[in-house]
């Protein structure tokens, strides 16, 4: 069956069901009718995933079925069950469904990182232009005192934690919202952050402090930078929905992408909080920690990010969405 025929035959039923579960009288829907319509909807979703995997109809049906699923289980007594469902099912599925956007976000960030790295080696003033004269001068002074990462101890831990956490959450929100300017908007934010990180590490390598800088940055950066890339993926998806709406209207695709992207941005906020705690309370003691303590924190952070944001979404997709 051609996709346009499939949509024409079922669109009214989908639309009626969507209106039904979105209306004020949603609590009066018969449980049997709700379950019956939900089963038919998931059958349509499986069919669409099999025959039209790249179509916008898959995203539409997935969103509608998720909403119906939440409605069916609305009477669960424990709120913790709904929170558990978000972390164990909803968020991993969203991550899987926009995995290509996340991969593109990662490639843009790494490309910008390399630009920042090599530019800092080629042009002495590049680092000052990117990081600012005050930061560079302070760091050079700290290096001369034998405390290259001393800037992490210039403020009280709690004050530093608040500043870093709010800044990083703000960066992720901006990376997502800039998708309103098409994917180029989000790409600009990713490139800016990638160039900054590349220039920062290159600066330390020029002072033969590469190991110190990498370990110091990755203590918190493993989670922080990964979360920025994930937010960038959400922004690219948002921008793509505006440029390439596919079968459905541009407004519908935009609203759908905004809802899904917001879910992802909210989901990565704990990563920024944990990264801010590490940067504020742990990184300042880098000289006392030793290599293996630093390596252990980095390894645990990396294993968590790889499992939850790469491996687990695949497992969840295979369990809930993969056609049988």
From TrEMBL:
The keyword Amino-acid biosynthesis does not apply. It comes from the Bacteria. The chain crosses the membrane at residues 102-121, 160-182, 194-219, 225-243, 264-283, 295-315. Signal peptide: none annotated. It holds the Pfam family SpoIIM. Keywords: Membrane, Transmembrane, Transmembrane helix. The keyword Transmembrane applies. This is Stage II sporulation protein M. It comes from Xiashengella succiniciproducens. The lineage of its organism: Bacteria, Pseudomonadati, Bacteroidota, Bacteroidia, Marinilabiliales.
